Amino acid sequence: MIRVRIRVVAGAACVLAVGAGIGAVALSRGSGEAATAAEAPGATAEVVRTDLVSRTDVDGTLSYADSYTVTTSRGGRITWLPDVGDVIKRGKRVYEVDGKPVPLFHGDTPLWRKLYYGVSDGKDVRVLERNLKALGYGDDLTVDTTFTWATAEAVEEWQEDLGLDETGRVSPEDVVVEPGDLRVSALRTALGGTARGEVLTATGTTRQVTVNLPVTQQELAKVGDQVRVRLPGGTTTTGKITELGTTASAGSENGGQAQTGEGTETATIPVYITLTDPSAAGRLDGAPVTVGFTSATRKNVLAVPVTALLAEADGSYAVEVVDGERTRRVPVEVGSFADSLVEVSGPGLEAGMRVEVPGS
Q1: Crossing angle for the helix pair 149-162 and 123-134, nearest 10 degrees?
Q2: Checking phi first, is residue 174 left (phi over 0); if not, alpha (psi -120 to 50) or beta?
Q3: Separation between Cα atoms, residue 15 and residue 335, nearest integer Å
Q4: Residue spans of alpha helices (H) in the chain
Q5: What CATH superfamily classification does 56-64+206-295 receive?
Q6: Taking the chain, what is the end-to-end CA distance rounded to the nearest angstrom?
Q7: CA distance 215 to 250
Q8: What are the structural domain ranges in the chain?
Q9: DSSP structure string for 13-61
């Protein structure tokens, strides 16, 4: 019986059954005559017992999470601005007006009024006190919604260190309140400009991968699931799904395309992913990535490299098991494919055996 060696070119997204067909290129081994069991073995690979994880690859974009626009109604002249790409931490200046710094506070509630001793209670007081405390001011300060003498004293200490007038009062235009540290993405004004309107735009400092996942594949994504992320250059790392969008939007699959090559129009939902190791992305921003969502898992199965498969003339498959200086053909049933491996089972086939694969 004539045998041919095949290489199976399987998409990483596929879990294929033999009966459904295998995309393959059949390459003749030797000159076409039948191989014998006495052939000397060539390159080999080990039969392993492992879990096979099949993935569906979808295009995504790596960028910094969140976006913010910093505005001011302070008046005066802009006398200092950060550079694009700068990271601004809590307490550090976001910009300067008339030589006076306007620092960053963390919080979800902006200051909406002037705060001073005697002002009515409010959430904005808590934001002020929490930031003063975090910056090391006000040993006797209690973080609550009430502006006390201890609050006023802490404000004065803070103002002194910034080189500001020690009034004990804070106005909304004196600080920038955002949920966390900022990374400057663009400047909206220039030095010498009037301090009114937009000053700059920024993002958060956390890396995030965004995928526009076709709604027909939304079962692939669940919050908390781990995914594989392939970065530009081929480096891979892992990430975790942190959020799923709830509203589908229609549009091209470009930028969120399951890798089928069809490029059709489809409805998608946004999927947000954080990297397990953010340093793996280096300084990449706005970079295209490929996200592998787990589509099927086969646990504790025997597997060999896809290139170890032999296609028989009757449509079945076999592997060439290496036994010392000799080889013997073992018929196999083929299961799932994942990461260049294929699930196999056959009489006498065990983990630790070695099978022939094409030499490099």
Answers
A1: 50
A2: alpha
A3: 8
A4: 123-134, 149-162
A5: Efflux pump adaptor protein, beta barrel domain (2.40.30.170)
A6: 26
A7: 10
A8: 3-54+298-356, 56-64+206-295, 81-182
A9: T----GGG---EEEE--TTSSPP-TTPPP-SEEE-EEEEEEEEEEEEEE
Could you report the per-residue pLDDT of 74-99, keeping only the tens digit for each? Answer: 999 999 999 999 999 999 999 999 99
* Order of all β-strands in the sheet with 93-97: 78-80, 93-97, 100-106, 176-178
Residues 171, 267: Cα–Cα separation, whole Å: 46
Say which DSSP state 107 is in: -
Q: Do domains 56-64+206-295 and 81-182 have the same CATH topology?
A: no
Cross-strand partners of 59? 290
Contact 141, 154 (CB under 8 A): yes
What pLDDT does residue 40 have?
53
> Is 0.70 surpassed by the pTM of this model?
no
* Residue 331 amino acid letter: P
- Tokens for 122, please give them: 């409010």
Q: Considering the domain 81-182 in this protein, what is its CATH number? A: 1.10.101.10
Helix (H) or strand (E) holding 87: strand 87-88
Are 177 and 187 contacting, i.e. CB atoms less than 8 angstroms apart? no
Residue 75 amino acid letter: G
- For residue 44, the Cα-to-chain-centroid distance in whole angstroms is 36
Distance CA 122, CA 115 (A): 10
Measured distance CA(166)–CA(21) in Å, rounded: 78
What type of residue sits at position 133?
K
CATH class assigned to 3-54+298-356: mainly beta
Report how far Cα 156 is from the mean position of its chain's Cα atoms.
Answer: 43
Identify which of 62, 65, 63 has the alpha carbon closest to the alpha carbon of residue 231: 62
The whole-chain average pLDDT of the chain stands at: 85
Q: Model confidence over 310-345: pLDDT tens digits?
A: 999 999 999 999 988 888 999 999 988 887 899 999
